[in-house]
Amino acid sequence: MQPAAAWGSAQRAAELLRPGCRDLRLDRRTYSWRFLTTQSDEDELAGRPGRRSAGWLPLLPTPPQPEYPSAHTSIAAAYAAVLTSRLGPGPAQPLVLTSGGVTRTFSTWEQLVRENVDGRVWAGVHYRHSDLVGAELGRQVAAYDLDRSR
Fold this sequence. Notes:
Blueprint: H1 4-26, H2 41-45, H3 71-87, E1 95-99, E2 102-106, H4 109-122, H5 128-149
Antiparallel strand pairs: 1-2
Helix pairs in contact: 1-3, 1-5, 3-4, 3-5, 4-5
């Protein structure tokens, strides 16, 4: 287990990060949409070409939000940066998560961010570039908030 004082420090830092994470979700001055969200059923039925490969659908339903940057990976990277600053590069013992019969083990907070990026890409929710940019944005927001909390 992490020392109680360090864990309390991480919790306080995470609380300070909340407004920044809220901003990450709301700031949409620069964004793009996934091609699937621009295709209506009428377009597909009318046979308008070039918008979607026949029969292709993403793993998850396409969310009605901008594709770039990825807010999900922004927030994950921001929290990973806070945990790293307060607790070190990873948990004292590997973090083991099981979902849907699949078990994943993480030794560092950054591994969680990389898994988050990959999962968003594989699910068809974001392009990899959007996730990588989002993760970097999250790290920058965390650095700013951590500097202000000292």
